[in-house]
Amino acid sequence: ILALAFAGLLLVFNVFRLWDQSNQTEHPDRQSRTRQLADLAFRRENWNQAHEHYVELTKQDPYNGYAWYMAGICLWNQSYLLQDALAGELKSEVADQAKVDSLRAQLFDIGQRALDSLEYSLNWSRYRNPSRVAMAAINTTLDRHDQAIDILSSAIQDGYFRRAGLQAPEFDPLRNDPRFQEILHQESPPR
């Protein structure tokens, strides 16, 4: 399931990497090199290193929506190890409650940091709906189902029409929610 989710995020990354023509006015050579390093680390699934490079890009150019978006995605990709550890601990017959609480706190922290970065990327229309879908997935994983539904509803109202992204396993907890079913079948308003 996590492999499918990761494959979906990689697909989103590659699409936006091709579409993006980030603003590289202040230090074009340095930004270009940092972007190359960030994208390479992302492709190699070195989430921590990729995140550091994307954050560096946001420092070089705070208006680089691509860097904000990718920094959030990298943070969330880092969380998959925590999610696996938490799932394993919860399945254990002798779950260590202190460990469960610690893993949940770490997951919440990394999720909130990813949400903060993705929320900042909402300022650029190119990243608005992909960021919203990622934010909804994160909120679903963090058991914030109402926020996830609200975010997805907002994306639909703004014309998001790629419902295939909503088939990701992160949205499984919402499948039986009538509001989620309505989102899946709702038509986007005309542009």
Architecture overview:
The chain is built from eight helices and no strands. α3 runs antiparallel to α4. It is flat, with a radius of gyration of 17 Å. It starts with a helix and ends in a 6-residue tail after the last helix. About 5% of the residues have low confidence.
Comma- or semicolon-separated keywords:
72% helix; 191 residues; mainly alpha
SSE order and pairing:
Layout: H1 2-19, H2 28-43, H3 47-60, H4 65-91, H5 97-121, H6 125-141, H7 145-157, H8 178-185
Helix pairs in contact: 1-4, 2-3, 3-4, 4-5, 4-6, 5-6, 6-7
Number of strands: 0
Overall mean pLDDT stands at 84
Binned, the helix content reads over 70%
Q: Report the total helices.
A: 8
Low-pLDDT residue spans: 18-26
Mind summarizing the main beta sheet? none
Element-level helix/strand string: HHHHHHHH
Radius of gyration: 17 Å
Structural class: mainly alpha
The fraction of residues in strands falls at under 5%
Cα shape: flat
Q: N-to-C terminal Cα separation, in Å?
A: 34 Å
Question: Quick recap of the structure?
Answer:
72% of the residues lie in helices and 0% in strands. It contains eight helices and no strands.
